[in-house]
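Workshop exercise sheet. Pairs work together: one partner reads the sequence aloud, the other fills in the structure field after running the prediction. Swap roles for the next sheet.
Pair: D.N. / O.F.
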Amino acid sequence: MNFKIHLTFLILFSSFLFAKIKGTVKNQSTNEPVKGVNITAGEMGTATNEFGEFNINVSIGTKLEFSHIGYDLVSQLAQNIMLVEMSPIVIKSKEIIVRAGLSDESLQKITSSVTVFTGNDIRLSSTDHFQTLINQIPNLNWAGGTSRPRYFQIRGIGERSHYFGEGPPNF
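Structure field:
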């Protein structure tokens, strides 16, 4: 009987150790919600939904880090209800240099067709996904998904072509 009382007390007490933290992440300059913000607290993590809202089960006072491409990193201590404002940063980028092999080539010296996305093109894009930018490349067909492998087809069937991409696959 004593064991059951201790077990009940332990279960009730442990539920108070972790609170459900709720909040919203907004753009500091436009006051609009920011979707897809990564929120981490050590090994725990979540992301905001399309309305900039999030839920995470951590104890109050835990350090939460909010990160998103194009925004400054924000760190705050967890509270029951949170409002986080993220400051957008200006992405200063030159043209993407095409690399084939081990050398860099400027676009003026390349004899084949090349599609270039500048930092401004990426900034003006209305999406957060690389997939939408790929759809703007002429003569590039691609397919695949979660249940089947992805493939790229450049310039039609039967053409031999290579494509190179640096960085993590973010499709």
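Discussion prompt: The longest strand covers residues 19-27. What would you look at next?
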